[in-house]
Amino acid sequence: xxxxxxxxxxxxxxxxxxxxxxxxxxxxxxxxxxxxxxxxxxxxxxxxxxxxxxxxxxxxxxxxxxxxxxxxxxxxxxxxxxxxxxxxxxxxxxxxxxxxxxxxxxxxxxxxxxxxxxxxxxxxxxxxxxxxxxxxxxxxxxxxxxxxxxxxxxxxxxxxxxxxxxxxxxxxxxxxxxxxxxxxxxxxxxxxxxxxxxxxxxxxxxxxxxxxxxxxxxxxxxxxxxxxxxxxxxxxxxxxxxxxxxxxxxxxxxxxxxxxxxxxxxxxxxxxxxxxxxxxxxxxxxxxxxxxxxxxxxxxxxxxxxxxxxxxxxxxxxxxxxxxxxxxxxxxxxxxxxxxxxxxxxxxxxxxxxxxxxxxxxxxxxxxxxxxxxxxxxxxxxxxxxxxxxxxxxxxxxxxxxxxxxxxxxxxxxxxxxxxxxxxxxxxxxxxxxxxxxxxxxxxxxxxxxxxxxxxxxxxxxxxxxxxxxxxxxxxxxxxxxxxxxxxxxxxxxxxxxxxxxxxxxxxxxxxxxxxxxxxxxxxxxxxxxxxxxxxxxxxxxxxxxxxxxxxxxxxxxxxxxxxxxxxxxxxxxxxxxxxxxxxxxxxxxxxxxxxxxxxxxxxxxxxxxxxxxxxxxxxxxxxxxxxxxxxxxxxxxxxxxxxxxxxxxxxxxxxxxxxxxxxxxxxxxxxxxxxxxxxxxxxxxxxxxxxxxxxxxxxxxxxxxxxxxxxxx
Length: 714
Known about the structure:
Blueprint: H1 12-17, H2 29-35, E1 38-40, E2 50-58, E3 61-62, E4 67-74, E5 77-85, E6 91-96, E7 103-109, E8 117-124, E9 133-134, E10 137-140, H3 142-151, E11 156-157, E12 160-161, H4 167-178, E13 179-180, E14 185-186, H5 188-191, H6 197-211, H7 219-226, H8 238-247, H9 253-261, E15 280-283, E16 291-296, E17 302-306, E18 318-322, E19 334-335, E20 347-348, E21 354-358, E22 363-367, E23 388-393, E24 399-403, E25 415-419, E26 428-430, E27 438-443, E28 449-453, H10 459-463, E29 476-480, E30 486-491, E31 498-503, E32 509-513, E33 518-522, E34 528-533, E35 540-545, E36 551-555, E37 560-564, E38 595-601, E39 607-615, E40 620-621, E41 625-628, E42 667-669, H11 676-682, H12 687-692, H13 695-698, E43 710-712
Parallel strand pairs: 2-10
Antiparallel strand pairs: 1-5, 2-3, 2-6, 4-5, 4-7, 7-8, 8-9, 11-12, 13-14, 15-41, 16-17, 17-18, 18-19, 20-21, 21-22, 23-24, 24-25, 25-26, 27-28, 28-29, 29-30, 31-32, 32-33, 33-34, 35-36, 36-37, 38-39, 39-40, 39-41, 42-43
């Protein structure tokens, strides 16, 4: 089975020939040298074919007599398109065609008992968030193998690479960033930024690891042994070995580092063993500075708000959009719409429009899916916005805004503002005694809103020279129903300055306590299921949940990412329980990672991070977004609203979760204590307009409402 759940289909001639014993590729070497590259062509698959010229190398030398196979992978599975055998110079030629959708990749197998297996992506089809492209020359070696394994990890199994778009195509574009398939050398995204130097060294060390199987030494068996997870199956070849390191990045760091050190084919390598085998890519762009929050649209583009202008603490008027390969997209940086210092919130509505709070402008900015500003030059200030932070869009299209009252506001301030169906003209404000600098907002599968009450002013964090945690500051989480009424507020000693919040697929809330350095799990009924401490210096700010309900935490204090086992313990190593920390004690760290305020998962399984600050003292803006390649289980984007793993056919917006029990977007069910004035105020209508629309239900007396009556909202 492929990762998409679709059985891999192979040509009939391949199945028939399995019954006959074939000589190994190495036994064909002399014939290959005599005849040149042996190629078995295939019929075109819809477009004119063109030759793909390639070379296979191992340990820096050409490999002859190696079987090379061209595959197409898509949501329907894997297809073999052609085969060739390398000649004495390691060269081969295959006929290729640009894929209509999905990806093309080549695989070279042979040597050391077939344990050496190399791969390279050579084509990306339509259907992703990146332009279709293909190469006509490829070098297949250890470096392209590592790049392909990491980038395509969430779409790979023992039968090949396949899965739904746009995640599949976007992942292939990331493989080009890691390694140039034409040259077999590190990709431009790795070499162009000095912040990615640690990733360059890790790439080379992993490639050296693979190269031990190209030399026919006993070290190949040692690699496969060391790359076997606890309680897992030993990898059959080098591709599976590298995939195991992606899925279990803390496997045997010291021993594998020592094994790679004996090869020294690729340089520079890591001078010391890593805490984890991760590949991090920092992406920078004009005016991408001090990013606060990240969100993904349906194509996988990363939208980011920016706090400050580069090199200053002045409000940044730009919103950044990067395509899935980390390049500016949709005219980014985008100016206009009232943006004046992006805050922590960012949400994508059902129409694909993106809402970003303007912290400095006390307003909301809105952008079309193509990046065109839709809000006026001052933004929308309806609802009395004061330093808005988190935002979320519910299943009915209502925009919820956390009115935080700012970093320097007095304790106890705060409210929520709602734009019904995204209409600022009908804005209304929700108040509650529990609201205290509300920060993050998320919507659950029942249409309820979860909001963190940070309980503090962050002025001390911004302006003092204290680097330790303050004393108890308190904090809470408030849950509101689809009717906009507060249901309950949850308190716990671990909720000290709670900021980020994320919901898993079962509706459990995972809350980051900034000053307790703990993650609190809250059940859908509001009871606390567990508190999971992290090292004090982590200062967790943001949380994201992947497609297998594992919990990813962005650390503001020590520039790290922590991974916790979620409620789906089957997705965690043997013996792990909910809340078990799966990452190294200090988290996943890399030179590219700075002080983080956001973490999000994309449809390719990449973990994206916002480098908000580069220095704590004095406060200095961070640079770029960071992509941890292939580590997470993919989720459909944008969130709908809970994390859902893409199916074999991809994602169907709006069908992943049930809508709220109160009915459709245009109806309201009367509850005890309701009045037309109160309902009308909540939904931005006068009581008279509401009554005239519901005379048949209410009868002649507008003051007599009965619980259970279903009113139509104009």
